Amino acid sequence: MCGFSGWICFSSDISKFQDVITKMTDVLSHRGPDEEGYYVTKHALLGHRRLTIIDPEGGKQPMIKFHDQQKFIIVYNGELYNTQELRTKLQSLGYHFSSYSDTEVVLTSYIQWKEECVKYLNGIFAFAVFNETKNELFIARDHLGVKPLFFSIKNDNFIFSSEIKALLKHPLISTKVNKEGIFELIGLCPARSPFSAIFKDITELPPAHYVIYSKDRYEIKEYWQLKPEKFDKTVDKTIEIIKNLVTDAITRQLVSDFEICCFLSGGLDSTIITAISANNLREVGKRLKSFSINYKDNVRYYQYNQYQPTLDSNYAKIASKSIGTDHIVVEIDNELLCDALLHATVANDLPGMADIDSSLLLFTSEVRKYAKVALSGECADEIFGGYPWYWREDYKNFETFPWSPSLEFRKNILSKKYSKSELEEYVNSKYKESLGKVNYLDSDSQEEVRYRILYYLNVKWFMVTLLNRKDRMSMANSLEVRVPFADYRIVEFLYNVPWKIKYLENMEKGLLRRSFEGIIPDEIKNRKKSPYPKTYNPEYLKKTKQKVLEIIKNNSPIFEIIDMTYLENITEKEYFPLDKPWFGQLMTLPQFFGYIIQLDFWAKTYNVDFE
Length: 611
Hints:
Pathway: Amino-acid biosynthesis; L-asparagine biosynthesis; L-asparagine from L-aspartate (L-Gln route): step 1/1
Low-confidence stretches: none
Largest sheet: 6 strands, antiparallel
InterPro entries: Asn_synth_AEB, Asn_synthase, ASN_synthetase/amidase, AsnB_N, GATase_2_dom, Ntn_hydrolases_N, Rossmann-like_a/b/a_fold
Shape: globular
Helix content: 40-55%
Strand order of the largest sheet: 2-3-1-9-8-11
Protein name: asparagine synthase (glutamine-hydrolyzing)
Number of strands: 19
Structural class: alpha/beta
CATH architecture of the largest domain: 3-Layer(aba) Sandwich
Radius of gyration: 24 Å
CATH topology of the largest domain: Rossmann fold
Pfam families: Asn_synthase (PF00733), GATase_7 (PF13537)
């Protein structure tokens, strides 16, 4: 993977400001430690950092291509999984290629089909193409948001980058956070609304969107949507289709000129990916490495609960032995886990999922010692119905985001300087706005409509949150992580599969289990879903609490937006005032303290100006 930055201005000569694009691109060196490149002209500055995965010589960027007396320049971050098919199609249309890189295929696709090119791409991508002849910029992000892209429009300047930190290096962009950003931080985070990047001056381009920008035109458009269709497949046919789609997605993502590995928790999703990957590599004489995460003394302190019914360690061993991988367990120290909250905040440019972030950051740091590319099982729960809010009645019918049901708690956190009712209205408006975008059939029953709503919310909100986390934490360690279940073909198909088929045998992800029966061990097939593991060591809670008490003592700038008295009460009572996690399945009291630590560090480090 890579990172890029750009600055377009049609009203001034910006070529003399190359130092700005250099600073912006330099802070993305973790995304691309292997090479850097720049393109400088009167109205455009482009910078690129490269993590070399395919075609080391032919894939250098920025890449330039001439066609029909026009000059096109691309900066690109991603991986295209239908490269060969598209190259062959473009060659049949008369195009010639000087490399075997997917970058040239993406650029040529744009030259041929302009903004329609995104409909031909199967992969994970964010890219920008500048037509120097016509002075027109095109930027786009992949269907599901695996790769990030942010931009800012200031006067006549269009500034964009792979990460927020690069945009903040531009002198025109401030660190102001207005009331809307504050309501995002308290009412919705670690999720964020589509388009929101918290900072007032910055917009995140949502998944499946593109922008066209020229002197006379600014257009932003959603190019892909979930479309409802009548489902007429039998259960057996559905199983066959899912097996083929998932297998194809995994197989396509094994292309690399460097070492590739898999994350293997011993859960259903990662085991399927690992099994298919190992078989494919075995056919070419290679043995797959797999990795799982554990925490120091977790076995000692673990207690069964409805959100995490089993630990991964034994299941990861069973899966590895059955499949035949070289398995490595990465054990996380709890003190380092807490310390890494700060690094994770910088990687994300925002407060995030606390130790759910920092553990992944430490984990991918170890994995990077062995490989440049990894496959991971994210997104299966969102599309196959693995989360409790799909099948538990007390979650399913919440009239808010089901992974974040405790709005009253969030209102109590908010500083008295702001209106709690206004915060509630803001969150509710974002929920209702999303409901208005759900497409369904007139013939759908009330229950079917509700499942479409849950599906849409998971794909457009919760999935994007987890994909953002995966990208930032892995790319902070220069590790490219691919997510086969985030293939838009699978997502499209499953949108129309009835819940009773997804919930085969009255088990979450029953359809996925049945589709890979016989390919994965029965112990894994029948294992009840257990989410990404977290630490249960009381030392971690103790350490995070101590840090929160220090934040209170030092009168942190976050008390502009956080109610210090309410936070003090939580630290004194030593119990969490909720019977459910405050976000997702994992974020309870230790993670709440972790979020406060991240919020404090972010506000100070980024010199945040709360308006």
